[in-house]
Amino acid sequence: MNRYITLILSLLFFGFINAQKQIPQSFLKKNKTIDSLMQISYDRGIFNGNVLVTRNDSLVYQKSFGYSDGTGKTKLTKESIFCPGSIAKEFVAVSIMMLVEKGDLSLDDKLSQFDLGLPSWSEKVTIKHILNYVGGIPKIKWETVKNEQEILEDLQNLPNLLFEPGTDFHYNTNSIFLQKRVIESVTKKPFTEFVTENIIKPLKMTDAVFDPDFDYPNRSRSFDIYKQNALEFYASKGWLWTTIDDLNKWITALRQDKLISRASLISLLKNQYFENEGTILGGSDNNFKTHEHGGQSYQFESIFISEFGNEISIILMSNHKNQTFKIVKSIHNIIKDRPFNLPKKSIYREIRQKCLEDINQGISYYNALKRTDYDIYGFDNPNELNSLGYDLLALKKFKESITIFKLAISEFPNDANLYDSLAEAYYTNKQYDLSELNYRKSLEMNPKNTNAEAMIKKIENKHKK
């Protein structure tokens, strides 16, 4: 207990007091403050993974917290290999731009040029479209496809696009799949071979590996709230897994223009069609001084902030998805001598068991903690109750799930996503009128909610039968 109190006081002293006075900290103090932040995050059960902070190629902080899988038998080390989620898509997009800069490919090339057996719609979808998720390509049907051949066959049998290319935004992994096929068509070699020859070996990413099996040395497994290892089945291949040091080599190479030009990098950091939508490389600030990207897959969760002018990298890689995205912001604020937030414990995880036993008891416990420990738990995060609602829904506790989603909406009445979640719970419980009502509310609050639109049509068709 004394050790824990010391950590709290350390953060309060170094973080809030110094940052508020804007007194520059030495790197030694930054190291200690970051370590205190990370130790509290681990102790509170909201981080399990690796952390790396560098500046001008000098190490500011590096440490491993927790275990390589749900069994808790093997501790993570800096040699541990993680799935970085969507961050792996960067290797695809940068490969495309490398071929563009060589003159082997044009962003205006049509998909129909690459002998993929696609329907006539491929004659109007360009490389630039799929790089920016505006090609009208649907999502991969992960629930039905078993391998890459089936993914390709689905696209070959797709009669129509979701919309005219360039007129709307739709995030989808099919666009990444098609980019890999284009690279293979142009280079006449497997995507993994091209990346190995042109990126991995030149950057000396010695531990990076594509699609490692469960028994691959140092490979971590992602695990859930029950400490159960996730299935981790990947129908689409060619996903790069890395250590945190190798990921830093990649981030540094992009920041220092070692692979593609700064102009090409900026074109990937900014959506070329819709200013407020995401990009395949995550995103940047308006002045392109930073590069930020996060990725998730199963219970893996990784994120980094790369700051160009100061040559800063802050990377977190976790195999137990929780609050990694918030923690990286606090570390960045520590580095910049700004006020930062202490990580909060998960209210979802705290009340989950009581909600399973008795939903009313669980909500009473929630309200009691809110009165006494508001600053300790994540009451300000709508994803906490949303995650609990989906947890209960997956366990077929439909009424309990609906109760939690209603509680979430009462706490966050302006969150369109929560209305969408409640609508899904009602739909699953075959309460179609209430489902439609909440989908319409969600769509009213967020007109871009294509899922709500589709579900409303689905419910209307049910009424007609």
From TrEMBL:
Which Pfam families does the UniProt entry name for this protein?
Answer: Beta-lactamase
The yes or no answer to whether the keyword Lyase is present is no
Q: Can you tell which superkingdom this protein's organism belongs to? A: Bacteria
- Alphabetically list the UniProt keywords: TPR repeat
Q: Which PROSITE patterns match?
A: TPR
- Read off the Gene3D superfamilies from this record: DD-peptidase/beta-lactamase superfamily (3.40.710.10), Tetratricopeptide repeat domain (1.25.40.10)
What are the Beta-lactamase-related domain coordinates in residue numbering?
33-320
Residues spanning the signal sequence: none
SMART domains per the UniProt record, alphabetical:
TPR
Please list the residue ranges covered by the TPR repeats: 416-449
PANTHER family per record: BETA-LACTAMASE-RELATED DOMAIN-CONTAINING PROTEIN, D-ALANYL-D-ALANINE-CARBOXYPEPTIDASE/ENDOPEPTIDASE AMPH
Please report the name of this protein according to its UniProt entry.
CubicO group peptidase (Beta-lactamase class C family)
- What organism is the protein native to? Tenacibaculum adriaticum
